[in-house]
Design a protein that fits this description.
The complex is a heterodimer. Chain A is built from 5 helices and 10 strands, in the order αββββαβαβαββββα. Chain A is an alpha+beta fold. In chain A, strand 4, helix 2 and strand 5 form a beta-alpha-beta unit. By secondary structure, chain B is of the alpha/beta class. Chain B is built from 3 helices and 8 strands; from the N terminus they run H-E-H-E-E-E-E-E-E-E-H. Chain B has a 3-stranded mixed beta sheet with strand order 1-3-6, with no helix packed on it. Chain B has a 3-stranded mixed beta sheet with strand order 2-8-7, with no helix packed on it. The two termini of chain B are 48 Å apart. In chain B, 19% of the residues are buried. The chains are: A alpha+beta, B alpha/beta. At the A-B interface, strand 1 and strand 10 of A face strand 5 and strand 6 of B.
């Protein structure tokens, strides 16, 4: 065997190895970073008033992904951090950001009016949706999404203890993934990108 | 390099190779015996770990009862996937997991950590989850590759002291007394 044959044989082995590794990577199903809910089920309906006097309906968002977080405007830590992460996700998505709705719903309707919620989220991004309503309107939503919230008296007023899940609704309106507070933005972004590939 | 130096170099190299082989065998034997003796439940390959929340769990918890089929603490290894099947008629939560009624939710355990999470299906309202880094075959091989060369060098230096490469010239026999 001439030296040139050895070179060709080596190259052939290399090509086969690269092809094998590439195929393995491509054929491996995507592993979501969030907690995946199975079977995927229709997300509980959310109907809450908006500032313009109209209503926000979750069911009308089909065809888009929806990221939902429950919190309150006077929250000193978890809520602003989550909203700033939403902003990072939106910026990273670029043009495809119009396929994602970012929604912030209050757990403190006594102080958070729809106007205040809209103003608050606009500080992060003018396209974010901030929702409030009466306790009667919000209560079924909190229950459906398992939102824990409790007022904690302080020397001046009160703060709110609340759960800190981010819920990801897919284009078909199914509750697909949840994320605990502290999930890296990159993980959330990767999952959003993956779900954007799906057809509604 | 003269002939004498070459001879010494050759002797040293042969000795080092032999001691390296011995070191690998010794380290392998010691580490494997230690591994077998100290092996823990978490020294295993990653797997899917399932928890089933039985029907009526929320009612039992509200009544102050404990769900005996679900442990209060669990240990995982990095790479495990925890899948919780909720067979109850109400949603449940475990730390970052939200599990709607009659659904399941999964969580990949990607980081070694230990936490007590709030848990709706424990009477104490908390559940301890510990994620450990497993001792894999690669970990064991790494240990061997780190320890064996160091042991070989130690044995080699020790051998130079005990049995020098350069043999001492044999003492000449004393000349027989001539009467």
């Amino acid at each position: 065997m001439k030296p040139v044959h050895y070179i060709f044989a080596g190259l052939a082995v290399l090509v086969i190895l690269v092809a094998g590794v590439g195929a393995a990577v491509l054929l491996t199903p995507y592993q979501f970073h969030g907690s995946e809910i199975a079977p995927a089920r229709t997300a509980p309906e959310i109907v809450l008033p908006t500032v313009g006097g109209e209503s926000f309906r979750l069911s009308e968002q089909q065809g888009k992904l929806v990221l939902i977080f429950f919190g309150y405007t006077r929250c000193p830590d978890v809520c602003p951090l989550t909203l700033s992460e939403f902003k990072q996700v939106k910026e990273a998505l670029g043009e495809r950001a119009d396929q994602v709705e970012f929604v912030f719903i209050t757990v403190d309707p006594e102080r958070d009016t729809p106007e205040l919620m809209a103003e608050h989220v606009a500080r992060f991004d003018p396209e974010f949706v901030g929702l409030s309503g009466s306790a009667a309107e919000l209560d079924p939503v909190w229950r459906a999404y398992g939102v824990y919230h409790e007022a904690v008296p302080m020397s001046a007023g009160y703060s709110m203890d609340h759960s800190a899940f981010t819920y990801l609704i897919d284009k078909a309106g199914n509750l697909r993934l949840t994320y605990g507070f502290g999930t890296p933005v990159e993980d959330l972004l990767a999952d959003v990108r993956e779900l954007l590939k799906e057809e509604p | 390099m003269n002939r004498h130096t070459r001879l010494l170099f050759k002797r040293g190299l042969v000795r080092l190779l032999i001691l390296t082989a011995i070191s690998f065998a010794l380290v392998l034997a010691f580490s494997e015996v230690s591994f077998i003796l100290q092996k823990e439940e978490s020294d295993r390959a990653p797997q899917v770990v399932e928890i089933f929340i039985p029907e009526g769990t929320a009612q039992l918890i509200a009544a102050g009862n404990r769900i005996t089929s679900i442990p209060e603490e669990m240990t995982f290894v990095v790479g495990d996937v925890l899948v919780i099947h909720n067979n109850d008629s109400v949603q449940h939560q475990l730390g970052p997991l939200f599990i709607p009624a009659y659904s399941s939710a999964s969580l990949a355990m990607n980081t070694a950590d230990a936490n007590a999470y709030t848990c709706s299906f424990q009477q104490t309202q908390y559940m301890g989850l510990e994620v450990r880094t497993p001792t894999t075959n690669w970990t064991r091989l790494q240990g061997l590759l780190l320890a064996a060369p160091a042991t070989a060098i130690f044995l080699f230096v020790y051998s130079l002291v005990v049995v020098p490469l350069e043999k001492k010239p044999k003492a000449e026999k004393p000349a027989e007394a001539v009467e």
